[in-house]
């Protein structure tokens, strides 16, 4: 052998040994050093988590009747991973599926695409590995077609799932109060810590509003996880682990389905009446409270909607069409989130304020047709005067000028336009005592605080608007000047005034506040609570809808007790005096027309009408009440915006609600004995609810 | 030489029997043993890789396993025949073998050929049998190159220019035919064999470096002028960054690494590979058989397999060193280059340190043609070994 060959063979030896060592080294690196890492990746791509949603608890009324329950639906889902592995990325499968389901391929493609910054609904906001439900009202025949020809439908499955159902028990919908569910988004998961979900999957529905949101943790239960083994094609080859889901608990509420239905009918009737009179009747609300406990018996708002639209997801267009501005934003509960000028219903607060400020309770005061404040005339309703009257009559006939006088004199005592260091502002202070200007603390999300305007508010408002006002004071309003130079001059002057001394608390503001006008805003719920406080002798309750949380097997998880009522710092004698006066309103006062045919001897109703003026719109009609007048149990408030007078529009609605509660027309009271039942409804161990106690 | 003469002289006598047992005794049993273990373990891995898939298709779950068990004895028989030939006779057969293989390669490109896994490298014989001529072309090339390069010209230490050019042309023709299939892996094997045998034959360094440099330049121009199929380019880029396109070409590389890595130190046990059962790695019984070993047998088992392949190469080199003449040395060196390159490339691509090309793992992967060719190569080594110089 020649030496060169020999050398080359030696080199070849070295080369072979080196390469073999490289392989062994790499094996060591992959298998021993990084083995754990790859084992984890392996189990991730081999085992896939399928979230098994828990059956959500029902929401029941006070007798255990369902307000929301579940129905079993045949849901067709599409597994995106399998679809994307098809040669045509699933087009053929979706075309066939669309034909079976009676929809279009485009619609299915939209439902199964992943949501992103540039992709809006319809799209899938969940995990790409979770089967995406595309149809939840599947006809069993269609489902059978799919399951029988599985080879034609790779990645498509039809399964029984429970979805929310709204039975309209006794006709009650309570859409805004119940709220709705939406798939949990990643951001929400990040934001809401402590949320018990098995990881983000997109089928975890979460309460977004109303009771569904407030009691989400109780209702949701715990999702289960099925870890399925899959092969490279994403086909399920077996189940690795199955952690079963734990069903959610039922929420028993203090809502009475019959009363709720009556409230919904009554405010709908009031809106219809307003519209018959040529008004817009744009929105309405009704509240029924137990004055002693703060339990909410009914809570209704108009415009409303069918909560079933949420089931199975809602597209952006549907959302705009059904729930948008053009429909009057029916998602907003006017009862707790709507803020309106309360008008004369506010006088209970002003009266208490005046007496606390030193005006004798039994005094006689003038009630002229109009009262001049700083050269400006403030009038009674329709300018009618009542002569010299006491405070009792002032409430019964709803005299405004008496309260103008109180407010103006108080304002002068506080120093007028040049107030002292600590103005007393009795009207503002007392309004806050009644709970106005602050949330009631009801167990619902999205409650509005209302507004009691005061000097601090004025200051802040001035600071926020001064720039614009000062500019307008110089330039005027060119658009208005073109058509109406006179108005422009006036507006310009106003702007100048606002610019220079807009922080000042004027007499007019005190005067307006005293009759619930101007910048005062309250929610119907706040007003109902204030009247409840008058009725129960000075307890400011915290409204509660939730009564108890009961497991599907019948065990009571917890009873929901309302917080201890706050004491209303108003002389009980004043409250008693007011109760006396309010009891006369339906018989001889402003609500006389509405209660003309109502048997007040059987159920004495006390209340106060309110007709709040809104600039550029028709009046807001109010009736705030409680009954029975001698032994108060329920406070009821009805409100209709752009409607007319409280006596003509809202008082009749409230009357209808009392009729339903006490069964005055048909002899079938919604609440036998005129009160909520003491006992919780019984959930039997098999999960059904004992409804035998329900009237 | 003496053995051959002795055989003739003692024909029909008791000595002849002794002589034959002596032949048997002079086989390289270490080499045979290593190959035997590799082949048997390979068949078991083939069974593991295919069992579940065949059940799903409603076929005999051991179909592949049984066929491989059938391939092996046929291959060993072929190897034995080659080993027992006087290997110098091969010089006479070499052009025939080379010619037949080349005709096969042309036939593959004709309508007789069949495309399997993107490579048009098969001739279907019917009855479920198919032949991959490129495997046998490797045998032909090794023997033919050894024949050309064995005899130095007068006054030369290594082959002359004419021999080198002839070798280039003879290796180039089948390599070009295989490239047309297209089968990049086998072409690379041809290049490795050519370079290795040229080196061992004693060609001057400048020739070797010139060839390597020219080859690299050619490869670059091929790449830049877009002569490669898109999937081949994709496989190469995926090799550089497998996570760039996990569902595309990088998918194989990534899944292969996951399967091997998840095996850990001691593996999940034979037939217990979960990645294997889930078919996450494609072509697992052939090109990616080593992933099964990695997952089920772990680091220990993988090292044993690499070690056994190392033993094969070591014995091959030993045979090359001890060969009776230059022809024997070159045949053995050629076989070592062939099997060595194929081993490193196959295991390397599985472990993500080499680009992915379709090459089976010698003696382990499933496949009739490859198994036969590999065992014929084993026979060649034994043939050289039987007629080696006495160990001093």
TrEMBL record, chain A:
One of its GO terms (molecular function) is serine-type D-Ala-D-Ala carboxypeptidase activity. It comes from the Bacteria. One of its GO terms (cellular component) is plasma membrane. It is a single-pass membrane protein. Residues 52-237 form the Penicillin-binding protein dimerisation domain. It is found in: Cell membrane; Membrane. The keyword Cell membrane applies. Residues 286-659 form the Penicillin-binding protein transpeptidase domain. Residues 672-695 are annotated as: Disordered. GO terms for biological process: cell wall organization; peptidoglycan biosynthetic process; proteolysis; regulation of cell shape. The chain crosses the membrane at residues 9-28. Keywords: Cell inner membrane, Cell membrane, Cell shape, Cell wall biogenesis/degradation, Hydrolase, Membrane, Peptidoglycan synthesis, Protease, Transmembrane, Transmembrane helix. PANTHER family: PEPTIDOGLYCAN D,D-TRANSPEPTIDASE, PEPTIDOGLYCAN D,D-TRANSPEPTIDASE MRDA. This is Penicillin-binding protein 2. It comes from Actinomadura craniellae. The gene is mrdA.
TrEMBL record, chain B:
Its EC number is 2.4.99.28. InterPro entries: Cell_cycle_FtsW-rel_CS (IPR018365), FtsW/RodA (IPR001182), RodA/MrdB (IPR011923). It is an enzyme of class 2 (transferase). The keyword Transmembrane helix applies. GO terms for molecular function: lipid-linked peptidoglycan transporter activity; peptidoglycan glycosyltransferase activity. Keywords: Cell membrane, Cell shape, Cell wall biogenesis/degradation, Glycosyltransferase, Membrane, Peptidoglycan synthesis, Transferase, Transmembrane, Transmembrane helix. It is a multi-pass membrane protein. GO terms for cellular component: cell division site; plasma membrane. Pathway: Cell wall biogenesis; peptidoglycan biosynthesis. One of its GO terms (biological process) is cell wall organization. It is found in: Cell membrane; Membrane. This is Peptidoglycan glycosyltransferase RodA. It comes from Actinomadura craniellae. The lineage of its organism: Bacteria, Bacillati, Actinomycetota, Actinomycetes, Streptosporangiales. The gene is rodA.
């Amino acid at each position: 052998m020649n030496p060169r060959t020999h050398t080359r063979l030696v080199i070849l030896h070295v080369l072979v040994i080196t390469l073999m060592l490289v392989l062994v080294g790499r094996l060591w690196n992959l298998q021993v050093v990084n083995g754990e890492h790859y084992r984890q990746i392996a189990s991730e791509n081999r085992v896939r988590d399928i979230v098994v949603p828990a059956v959500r608890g029902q929401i029941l009324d006070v007798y255990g009747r369902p307000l929301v329950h579940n129905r079993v639906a045949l849901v067709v889902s599409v597994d995106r991973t399998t679809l994307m592995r098809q040669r045509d990325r699933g087009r053929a499968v979706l075309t066939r599926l669309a034909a079976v389901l009676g929809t279009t391929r485009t619609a299915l493609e939209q439902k199964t695409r992943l949501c992103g910054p540039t992709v809006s609904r319809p799209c899938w906001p969940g995990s790409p590995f979770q089967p995406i439900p595309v149809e939840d009202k599947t006809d069993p025949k269609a489902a059978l077609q799919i399951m029988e020809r599985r080879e034609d439908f790779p990645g498509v499955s039809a399964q029984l799932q429970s979805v929310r159902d709204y039975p309209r028990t006794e006709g009650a919908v309570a859409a805004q109060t119940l709220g709705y569910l939406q798939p949990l988004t990643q951001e929400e998961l990040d934001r809401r810590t402590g949320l018990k979900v098995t990881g983000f999957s997109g089928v975890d529905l979460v309460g977004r509003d109303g009771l569904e949101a407030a009691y989400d943790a109780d209702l949701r239960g715990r999702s289960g996880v099925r870890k399925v083994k899959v092969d490279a094609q994403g086909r399920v080859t077996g189940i690795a682990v199955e952690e079963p889901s734990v069903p959610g608990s039922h929420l028993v509420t203090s809502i009475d389905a019959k009363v709720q239905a009556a409230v919904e009918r009554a405010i709908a009737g009031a809106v219809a009446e307003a519209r018959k009179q040529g008004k817009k009747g744009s929105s309405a609300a009704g509240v029924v409270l137990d004055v002693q406990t703060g339990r909410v018996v009914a809570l209704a708002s108009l415009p409303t909607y069918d909560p079933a639209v949420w089931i199975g997801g809602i597209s952006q267009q549907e959302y705009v069409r059904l729930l948008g501005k053009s429909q009057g934003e029916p998602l907003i509960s006017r009862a707790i989130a709507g803020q309106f000028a309360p008008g004369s219903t506010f006088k209970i607060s002003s009266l208490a304020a005046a007496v606390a400020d030193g005006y004798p309770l039994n005094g006689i005061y003038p009630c002229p047709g109009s009262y001049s404040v700083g050269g400006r005339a403030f009038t009674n309703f329709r300018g009618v005067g009542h002569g010299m009257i006491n405070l009792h009559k002032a409430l019964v006939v709803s005299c405004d000028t008496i309260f103008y006088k109180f407010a103006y004199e108080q304002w002068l005592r506080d120093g007028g336009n040049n107030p002292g260091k600590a103005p007393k502002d009795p009207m503002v202070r007392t309004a806050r005592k009644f709970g106005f200007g602050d949330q009631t603390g009801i167990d619902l999300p999205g409650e509005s605080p209302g507004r009691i305007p005061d000097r601090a508010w004025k200051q802040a408002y001035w600071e926020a608007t001064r720039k614009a006002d000062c500019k307008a004071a110089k330039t005027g309003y060119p658009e208005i000047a073109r058509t109406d130079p006179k108005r422009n001059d006036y507006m310009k002057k106003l702007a100048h005034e606002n610019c220079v001394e807009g922080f000042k608390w004027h007499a007019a503001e005190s005067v307006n506040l005293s009759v619930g006008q101007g910048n005062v805003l309250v929610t119907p719920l706040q007003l109902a609570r204030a009247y409840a406080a008058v009725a129960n002798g000075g307890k400011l309750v915290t409204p509660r809808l939730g009564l108890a949380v009961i497991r599907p097997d019948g065990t009571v998880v917890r009873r929901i007790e309302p917080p201890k009522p706050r004491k209303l710092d108003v002389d009980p004698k004043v409250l008693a005096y007011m109760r006396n006066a309010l009891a006369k309103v339906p018989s001889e006062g402003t609500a006389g027309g509405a209660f003309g045919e109502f048997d007040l001897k059987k159920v004495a109703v006390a209340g106060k009408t309110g007709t709040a003026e809104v600039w550029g719109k028709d009046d807001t009609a109010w009736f705030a009440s409680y009954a029975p007048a001698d032994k108060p149990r329920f406070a009821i408030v009805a409100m209709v915006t752009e409607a007319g007078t409280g006596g003509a529009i809202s008082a009749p609605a409230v009357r209808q609600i009392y009729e339903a509660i006490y069964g005055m027309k048909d002899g079938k009271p919604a609440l036998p004995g005129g009160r909520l039942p003491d006992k919780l409804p019984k959930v039997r161990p098999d999960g059904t609810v004992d409804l035998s106690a329900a009237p | 030489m003496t053995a051959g003469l002795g055989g003739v002289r003692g024909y029909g006598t008791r000595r002849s029997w002794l002589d034959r047992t002596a032949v048997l005794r002079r086989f390289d049993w270490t080499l045979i043993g290593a190959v035997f273990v590799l082949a048997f373990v390979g068949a078991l891995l083939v069974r593991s890789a295919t069992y579940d898939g065949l059940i799903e298709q409603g076929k005999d779950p051991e179909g592949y396993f049984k066929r491989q068990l059938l391939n092996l004895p046929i291959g060993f028989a072929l190897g034995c025949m080659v080993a027992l030939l006087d290997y110098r006779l091969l010089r006479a057969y070499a052009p025939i073998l080379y010619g037949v293989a080349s005709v096969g390669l042309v036939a593959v490109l004709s309508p007789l050929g069949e495309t399997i896994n993107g490579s048009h490298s098969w001739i279907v014989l019917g009855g479920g049998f198919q032949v991959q001529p490129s495997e046998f072309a490797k045998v032909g090339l090794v023997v033919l190159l050894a024949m050309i390069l064995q005899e130095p010209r007068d006054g030369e230490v290594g082959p002359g220019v004419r021999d080198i050019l002839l070798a280039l042309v003879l290796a180039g023709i089948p390599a070009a035919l295989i490239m047309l299939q297209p089968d990049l892996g086998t072409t690379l094997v041809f290049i490795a064999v050519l370079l290795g045998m040229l080196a061992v034959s004693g060609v001057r360094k400048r020739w070797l470096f010139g060839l390597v440099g020219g080859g690299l330049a050619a490869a670059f121009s091929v790449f830049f002028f877009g002569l490669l199929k898109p999937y081949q380019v994709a496989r190469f880029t995926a090799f550089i960054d497998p996570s760039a396109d996990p569902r595309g070409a990088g998918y194989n590389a990534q899944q292969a690494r996951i399967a091997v890595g998840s095996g850990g130190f001691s593996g999940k046990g034979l037939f217990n590979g979960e990645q294997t059962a889930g078919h996450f790695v494609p072509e697992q019984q052939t090109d990616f058989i080593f992933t099964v070993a990695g997952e089920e047998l772990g680091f220990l088992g993988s090292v044993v397999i690499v070690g056994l392949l190392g033993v094969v190469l070591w014995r091959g080199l030993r045979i090359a060193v001890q060969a009776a003449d230059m022809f024997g040395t070159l045949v053995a060196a050629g076989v070592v280059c062939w099997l060595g390159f194929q081993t490193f490339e196959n295991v390397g691509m599985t472990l993500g340190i080499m680009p992915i090309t379709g090459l089976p793992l010698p003696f382990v992967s499933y496949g009739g043609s490859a198994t036969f060719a590999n065992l014929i190569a084993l026979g060649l080594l034994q043939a050289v070994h039987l007629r080696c110089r006495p160990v001093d």
